[in-house]
Amino acid sequence: MKRIVLTGGGTAGHVTPNLALIPALQAQGFDVHYIGTRDGMEKSLIQKANIPYHVIAAGKLRRYVDMKNITDIAKIIQGTCQAVAVLLKIKPNVVFAKGGFVSCPVVWAAKVLGIPVVVHESDLTPGLANKLSLPFAKKICYTFPETALHLDASKSVLTGLPIRTALAQGDAVIGRKLCGFTDEKPVLLVMGGSQGASVLNQIIRSNLHTLLNDYQICHLCGKDNQDSTLEGLSGYCQFAYAHEELAHLFAMTDLFLSRAGSTAIHEMLLVNKPMLLIPLSKNASRGDQILNAISFENRGFASMIFEEDLDDQLLIGRLSQIQFERSRYIKAIKTANIANGLDATMQVILSVLK
Length: 354
Known about the structure:
The chain is an alpha/beta fold. It has helices at 16-27, 41-47, 68-90, 103-113, 128-133, 172-179, 198-206, 208-211, 246-252, 262-270, 288-298, 312-324, 326-336, 342-351; strands spanning 2-7, 30-36, 53-55, 94-97, 117-121, 139-142, 156-158, 187-191, 216-220, 236-239, 255-258, 275-277, 302-304. It has 2 domains: 2-160 and 339-351, Glycogen Phosphorylase B (Rossmann fold), CATH 3.40.50.2000; 166-336, 3-Layer(aba) Sandwich (Rossmann fold), CATH 3.40.50.2000. It is globular. The model has no long low-confidence stretch (mean pLDDT 93).
């Protein structure tokens, strides 16, 4: 039996593409294993897929001087040794790395053992973890056409992003029932990412009563960010994080308001709905979400507002504008015909085994 090790973690964006791949790999006869951290969010997400989960240590890699770098280097060395032991035990035919700092020790261990590695990059420019993994990859999959400028063309393939196909198979009626909504007003779905987004949470709630005049609002606000004082408010429903119900929430949605993590915006693209993107500011990130959002805006899929420019009036006005021009955004998305990257990524994985 063919055997594959998947790895990636830290945020949902480094995990959910792997979740999309698991059933496709199993259908091709693969025995699928996962390597992640003990306390990372990848553990809870992957264990629901009912595949073996192996724990290693992982340290954060920083671009700046910090005393934690010393202890984290020790964790990285420990994690690499643990990854070698796990891979020797599992004996996989291939490793697929989706990014996040847990993936580096696994990729390095695979290289030492002569196991072919496929690395997938979701964002427009590679993150630090993937930059440290790319030299050891036999094949590199990427999502945005612009990313080709940053990669070795001889081993890179534009595959798109593997997306869970179930997300396009939701039922709007079930979604509205889950939220207590009617079909009389459009639905605005607010997504702050797996960690939530305090900026989005705050501006939505401070303008809630104004927005509820025009929309019903489903708010995915992140763990521990629910506001008990808003429970039962007509036209407003909040979730810490959506799992199986997400497809139904997508189906009922007319307009998305979201951060601009690559996985999230490509999942939204799958259901052909317009979006307003508020990318994480460069002060709080490496700027990857800004580049993602600019790419989507340039292609007509979304409108964007820089976090530094965000205010009440601009938010409300831009949402109204997008809703008014809704058909233009939908046409751009459908005309682009962005394919689910699942099949193309599977073909790359299979190709390294030949």
